[in-house]
Please model this.
Amino acid sequence: MNGEGVSDIEQSVEKKPDDFRILVLVDSKAKGHGATFDSTWMQYLGRSLNKQLKAKRVVPIVGGVAGSDPFYEYQLLKQRLIKYKPDVVIIAINETDVKDVKVRGGMERFLPDGKVKFNDAPEIEKYFEKSFLLRFIMLELLQYDWLYHSSERQEIENQLALELIGDAIIEIRDLQEVSSGFDIVVVLHPM
Model:
């Protein structure tokens, strides 16, 4: 972790004229949790582009934080990483982001005082945690998921989470318009 709290080396805030900065907003799964720094896909991307682009020096900046999701990544970009004046911001999305948003919610989780408030757990959780029989019935027989959603509700919740993730991308786009004017690329990581 560097001084910004992300999984990257210390980067200079001052941008050289020939630098082309690619800021990648990712969680641990997307950045390659367990991989050495030089073997992440972001470092491969930087090396590959540096071979192709002779006029610019591509500088990948990893905005990777374990457990983050697009809403945390927006806050991280806005509060800490925008000062690096990226030319491109890559937002990497994977299935853990969908689950995180289903549990945490969207931008409403960020309170005015800077604290975070997650959604309250459903009442059934206190019984679910103590009863193997209830877990078996719900998970195996009734096909509920670990977030206590019925199979019908799972699809609705997934769609709602995807819509919220779209909202987070729009928030990042709006930040782009009032900052240094970076381009945005959304990468979907298949599992």
Remarks:
- The helical segments are 28-31, 41-52, 70-81, 95-104, 125-128, 132-141, 151-178.
- Strands lie at 19-26, 57-64, 88-93, 183-188.
- The CA atoms of residues 71 and 150 lie 26 Å apart.
- The chain has seven helices and four strands.
